[in-house]
Design a protein that fits this description.
With 499 residues, the protein is mainly beta. The protein folds into 3 domains: 11-152, Lipocalin (Beta Barrel); 156-259, Lipocalin; 267-379, Quinohemoprotein amine dehydrogenase alpha subunit, domain 2 (Lipocalin, Beta Barrel), CATH 2.40.128.120. Helices cover 3% and strands 60% of the residues. An 8-stranded antiparallel β-barrel has the order 1-2-3-4-5-6-7-8. A hairpin with a 2-residue loop joins strand 3 (85-95) and strand 4. The longest helix has 11 residues, at 11-21. The termini are far apart. 52% of the residues are buried.
């Protein structure tokens, strides 16, 4: 029997085949058992997910021909009624250079700690709410895995195309990354970007629309545009200051844009004595997708140099742990474009090109010929703590492709409980194995916001003892799993809102 089947059009058949073959997986069916391991604290309910949302994700799944498991990107717009019912208004799916669209009804359920599920179109997702407006997700099917992020849409912003100055970041799996600044006037785009193509150094070039942004749909917030470089996109309004976009063509490029504020900028914007926490991930020429995950913190002097910090990254399964920032330089122009060159003790890291979203946060790409990597950095709040509850999402690979979503809750100044749903997907067989687990662990916070984390029950969780957090604010930041067995996994976490 062919182990592959169509991802979008034969999902229910795959579920039946999986059950017959004895593959265990989690599907959202509205029962408490479908919500994963015993929940942590909180008072989230189905009513916490109420309104219209847009979510974006990337992953790997069985292709339409049923011949292989291939990467995909996907953006979905849905409404949730606060009672467990979904209405999918737009589901755009791109794989193997072909785009498919769909819509229809679905269901969902939310446990008290914000973990839960979405189920629609024959697909199933584990999610964790950060608050009523934002969530992390993974696909938890036997035929596909993914990770992503969703947030509530402001439907009052669907009246016209975005307008103003925006900073954007986009990633095309194994192919390219770009960051830049643009101005949108009457739907016409103009600006500058830094484009990194795999195997080459980044180049700076102009960005201009070949076809102006169309007005968004009054129902979904979706519109279209194309650029003079030949790329075309669908865009999805989040609100008046943010939109997502995804390729309408043969690529898997997917990204986001936010209104730029706080300019004009200068080197002093990265203030003397201020620290900034960063996280990034990407694809390498050796390992391919998810071949690198990085996190760290650096302190600036407000002029051009770095006075301290630390970096952890895993590249092509090689762990580089707690490398001290011993110096380096940075630049920042009035339009928000800057460069970072960190000098590390005992290791090295490629330079970054960044664009400031505002005075405290930026999008960046890593200017390397060995990887296509991008991420964000943000101002670190003074003495951030790990004391409370946070939602998390992770991606990468160990013996299979691995995505995780869930949350953790501190129980003391050194201990926490951990609740996760994971999907281990093997592209060679086109099958995944979904698991849920509640466990615990310990942590130690350093003064610079670096946190050494031990997650217990390693065999069951797949989360090795050597996990590192970098805190940008209380219970919020980036993580890297450091495993000498040759794994490559990382992610983000964010403080959950009190309910």
């Amino acid at each position: 029997m062919n182990p592959f089947a169509s991802k979008k059009f034969a999902r229910r058949v795959l579920v039946a085949l999986a059950a017959i073959s004895g593959i265990l997986f989690a599907v959202g069916c509205g029962s408490s058992a479908s919500l994963g391991p015993p929940p942590l604290g909180g008072s989230f309910t189905n009513a916490s997910l109420s309104g219209q949302y847009v979510m974006r994700q990337t992953g790997t799944g069985v292709n339409q021909a049923g011949t292989s498991a291939d990467p995909f990107s996907e953006t979905t717009v849905f409404t949730a009624d606060g009672k467990g019912t979904l209405d999918v208004l737009e589901d755009d799916f791109n794989q193997d250079g072909t785009q498919f669209t769909g819509n229809g009804a679905g269901t969902y359920g939310i446990a008290k700690d914000g973990t839960g599920f979405l189920s629609f179109g024959g697909s199933n997702y584990a999610i964790t709410l950060i608050d009523d407006s934002h969530f992390y997700l993974i696909e938890e099917d036997v035929f596909a895995t993914s990770s992503g992020y969703g947030q509530m849409q402001d439907t009052t912003a669907f009246t016209a195309a975005p307008s103003g100055t925006f900073v954007f970041k986009a990633h095309n799996l194994d192919t390219s990354s770009r960051v830049g600044g643009i101005t949108i006037t009457g739907g016409v785009i103009s600006g500058t970007e830094d484009l990194l193509n795999a195997g080459f150094s980044a180049t700076s070039e102009s960005v201009n629309s070949a076809v102006a942004m169309s007005a968004p749909s009054s129902t979904t917030g979706r519109g279209t545009f194309s650029l003079t470089d030949g790329t075309s996109f669908g865009y999805y309004v989040v609100n008046s200051t943010e939109f997502y976009f995804m390729s309408n063509g043969t690529s898997l490029e997917i990204g986001q844009a936010e209104a730029q504020t706080g300019g004009p900028f200068s080197a002093a914007t990265l203030a003397n004595g201020a620290s900034y926490v960063f996280g990034s991930s990407g694809d390498t020429t050796i390992s391919g997708p998810a071949g690198i995950h990085s996190a760290g913190v650096f302190t600036t002097d407000g002029v051009s140099s770095f006075t301290g910090g630390a970096v952890d990254y895993v590249q092509d399964t090689t762990v580089n742990s707690n490398l001290a920032v011993s110096g380096g330089s940075y630049t920042l122009a009035a339009n928000g474009r800057g460069t970072i060159n960190l000098t590390l003790s005992g290791g090295s890291i490629s330079p970054q090109i960044f664009w400031m979203v505002n005075g405290s946060r930026a999008y960046f790409l890593v200017n390397s010929t060995l990887a296509v990597e991008d991420g964000t950095f943000s101002l670190q709040q003074a003495a951030p703590t790990l004391n409370g509850q946070a939602a998390l999402v992770m991606d990468g690979f160990d013996t299979t492709l691995k995505d995780r979503v869930g949350d953790f809750e501190t129980t003391s100044s050194t201990a926490f409980n951990w609740n996760q749903t994971a999907n281990a997907f093997d592209p060679s067989s086109g099958s995944g194995l979904v698991s849920t687990l509640g466990t615990n662990g310990t942590f130690t916070v350093s003064a610079n916001g670096r946190v050494a984390v031990v997650v217990n029950n390693v065999t069951a969780s797949g989360v090795t003892p050597g996990v590192v957090f970098y805190l940008s604010s209380p219970n919020t930041g980036f993580m890297v799993q450091e495993d000498v067995q040759g794994y490559d996994i990382g992610g983000v976490f964010a403080q959950q809102a009190s309910q």
